[in-house]
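Friendly challenge for the regulars: who can give me the structure tokens for this chain first? No prize, just bragging rights.
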Amino acid sequence: VKGGRPKIEEYDAEEAGTIALPDSEERDRIRNDPFAKLEQSGTQALQAKADKPIIELLQDQSEARNLNNYRLNKALRRQLRTQKKEAAAAEAEGSAKGLPAHIPLLKDTQEDVDVARGTRFASQGTGAGFEAAKT
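First reply, four minutes later:
Bragging rights claimed.
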């Protein structure tokens, strides 16, 4: 492809918050050198000991969140059924008013009702809405 350049990305494991894996030279050195292997296992043990409270906290949070999947699923299904009924009712009301299906009908607010009540049309004489329509 003319004019195209390969995308070069640099990856830093610490910046991404992940564990840095050793490169092939480091793996070979650890595999062949018993002292390097011992040093690596000690480093991993210290890291595991430091990470243990965080991992336990994450496990506790996960268990608490997923303790009762049936109850959560039931509530979610009820909420989705309600949303579907409301959407179907709004679509039916929009169709009854002659709106196309791709235009959503918004819910009425008290402010909308008050503005509609205060609007006067030409057939009703002069009023605030009539004057505003003239300008």
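The chain has a mean pLDDT of 85. The helical segments are 13-16, 24-32, 34-65, 69-96, 110-118, 128-134. Your move, everyone else.
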